[in-house]
Amino acid sequence: MNKKLRMATALAGLALVGACAKDEPTEGLVARAGSHRLTVDDAVELLVDQENLPNDIEVVRSLAELWADYALLAAEAAKDSTLAGLDLEPLVREQLDQEVIFQLRDSAIKVDTLLSDADLLAAYEREAPDSRVRASHILMTFPDQATEAQRDSVRAAIESVRGRALAGESFAALARRFSKDPGTAQLGGNLGDFGRGDMVKPFEDAAFALQPGGISDVVETPYGLHVIRVESKEAPGFEQVKEQFRIRLINQRYIQAESAFVAGVEERGKPTIQKGAEAVVRDVANDPAAPLSRRAARRALVSLADGAITVQDFRAVVQSQQPQFRAQVEAATDEQIRNFLKGLAQRELLLAEAEERGFETPQARVDSLVAEARSQLRTVAADIGLTPLDRAPGEELEPAVGRAVRRALADVLAGAKDVLPLGLLSFQLREDEPTSLFDSGLGEVVLRVGQIRASRGLSAADSAAATDTAGH
Questions:
Q1: H-type helices in 167-198, by residue range?
Q2: Rounded to an integer, what is the distance from CA 147 to the centroid of its chain?
Q3: What does the pLDDT read at residue 467?
């Protein structure tokens, strides 16, 4: 993907968190961030030559949002080049919490890693994880909404076909005549070779239990009734894969023990998703900067035995994510949102369990991660040209910030720089420096960009017509 296309995709996903301000002059303005202004002229100049971007209001809105983030960050860096005034701990909180959960799991989950070769061989023969079989099958299906009598009839028919195969008739010929699998019937039922996990479980279990030349009992799956014949079976020697299998088995034991531990924590925590939580989640994702009353912020999305996941908690999660996450939440099904809320509840319960057992992140580790995040932010701000500001002696801050941000955005639009979405920092910067977008200015930019591009097209057409006339 080229840089311009990546930039267009990133712009299209930026958070749309600005609100139109009331009772203030907006003529000729697209946006305001604190004392900084993005004019219609500035936005038109930035966008008019970017014909790879659609000329629509959402692109202009996203550009204005990015402008606001860059302007506020540049102004903050001009006041303090170390960016010490920004609280970056929320940016590293997810990593810190994950480290505490890892400590808890390492302490609480104990797995027996001692496996004798005899135990290992028995498990390998039972599971045969690396074996593959080549098989054929005959499939018979049930009619839609089949009655019990119809099901019995289909079962009797396939039992009869199976008996003929056991009696020595050609399995391939029987498959071509009777199988209802359109993909394999004309191939004599041939499925090719497959490994563990490639087929539905009942089919897989039956196939791997057979030896070459063996014919299965009738097997029922969601697709219907099958008779399976295994043509060949291959498996690497035990000694060849013994150590890899040992590691796999230990990992399986750890996963099972971890699942049991987490299930116990969840059982004690009793997470319950509240009615209507899905709609609230979508609303928050749509506008994560919208003011919340105290009552609305404290509304439970998931109740716990000792607490809750509230709307405010979820909003903090949304604000910490990249813009595309919000679009994903808005488009998610109710089931997907419920699964996400279950994951948040599980995380909260594990953190509470860790705290109860005395696990915590040393302050030195917190300080280290925050310092690293601050250093990375300074580096990126400098890389995109927001610091240091090119400021003439005695010049006010606003024009210097404006020049730097316009240059940075021009580089982004040209594909020379990647978009820097600030995520949670965007909301933090806007707490003290309110940001407004103006619909009239957004629309004017679209109108003027369209007019300029159209006039260029007409001029090119006129020029071509004149050249053609002169040639005749």
A1: 171-178
A2: 43
A3: 52
Is pTM beyond 0.90 here? Answer: no
Q: In the chain, pLDDT over 70 holds for what percent of residues?
A: 91
CA distances to 43, 155, 183, 370 from 172, rounded to whole Å, are 70, 20, 14, 67
CA dihedral angle for residue 98, residue 101, residue 102, residue 103, rounded to 10 degrees: 130
Task: Give the integer Cα–Cα distance in Å for 41 and 139.
Answer: 69
Sheet arrangement for strand 272-273: 272-273, 300-304, 307-310
Counting every residue written for the chain, the total comes to 472
**Tens-digit pLDDT profile for residues 213-246:** 999 999 999 999 999 999 998 877 777 778 888 8
The domain spans of the chain are 3-81+388-459, 89-109+269-356, 131-234
Helices (H), 210-289: 238-269, 277-286
**Would you say the C-alpha torsion 103, 109, 115, 120 has a positive or negative sign?**
negative
Virtual torsion, Cα 253, 254, 259, 264, nearest 10 deg: 100
Instruction: Report cis status (omega within 30 of 0) of the bond before 90.
Output: no
Q: Please give the full DSSP string across 352-414, using - where no structure is assigned.
A: HHHHHTT----HHHHHHHHHHHHHHHHHHHHHTT-SS----TT--HHHHHHHHHHHHHHHHHH
Thinking of the domain 131-234, which architecture would CATH place it in?
Roll (3.10)
Residue that wins the pLDDT comparison between 412 and 6: 412
Question: Which tokens belong to 141?
Answer: 């299906």
Specify the DSSP element, H or E, that contains 166. Answer: helix 148-166
- Residue 6 has, within 13 A of its CA and on its CB side, a CA count of 11
Read off the pLDDT of residues 148-167 as tens digits, 9 standing for 90 and up.
Answer: 999 999 999 999 999 999 99
